[in-house]
Amino acid sequence: MARMEENDAGMGHIHGIANAFKQSQILFTAHAAGLFDFLAKEKTESAIARAMGWSPRGTRFMLRALAAMHLVRARGARWRNTPSAAACLQSGASNDQGAFLRHTRRGWDDWARLDACLRGGAVKRERHYAGSEAERDYVRAMHAIALNNAPQCAALVDCSGRRRLLDLGCGMGAYAAAFLQAWPSLCVVLVDTRAVLAMAREHLAARGVADRCEFVAGDARRIALPADLDIIWISNVLHAWGPEECRACIARCFAALRPGGVLYIRDFLDDETPGAAAFHPVFGLDMMLHSEGGGCYTAAEVAAWTHAAGFKQGRLLRAGRKSRIWTARKP
After folding, report:
1. CATH of the domain at 299
2. What are the percentages of helix, strand and coil residues in the chain, rounded to 5?
């Protein structure tokens, strides 16, 4: 009996992994069809079928699948979003994840190339070309996540007595805004591509802090950094680069900081614990598919790079479930 239960549990685990893509496709399809916007108010099944252009049979199955996923619910003969779907899947909602879904869906075909990539096949250099709608979705998706993380990170970064902070690969400026609002005497230099900086300007103006920002357009891998900086903040940038690019970037950061300046590197630093959560190794494969040398680095690797650049011994800070912050000071 024990062996049978063990086998059943093992099969259930394997089947769950194998079938997980089906729920993703259900979510992508419903969102792309505009179902969650339509279900901001209660609707009948027949009204849903007409609005979506789906067959009555398909609509019935789809709604029941989404209900099992806790995204919609029925009250009598009418259907509506659950609170989590209303908050995350309706356009313009408080935590709208639409851009994240569109960005993730674009990787669907790329993952089908995993075997070829593992055998040394060419990676897909870009999932989102500069100035494209795909790039805007990617930037908005990362921004929605950053907005949730920024207050905690701002509390961990000590800017007392500091004047200039550089945000390398700033995205739409969620972290910059949090630092500026927490430290009224601070000025921030934001570095990213021209198209992304245009989005950052809009966000920072809306937050009322754009007057304390300097915008520098360029490739974060190669751009000459301004000198005389007190703090450099790099969030979720290094995982897209190879080790040599990371080392070179950290050396440039060391040169750009004043004596006593501090480098903060926030990333998906993997502790490589056997049996730990799957996110980090899976994300590492994602980077293998979409970059020449990127991946999930460990805190030990980042510490070795900062030490080689000349920084003092650093320390590791917790920054949520998936991320850590490595911070090191210039002597």
Report:
1. 3.40.50.150
2. 50, 15, 30
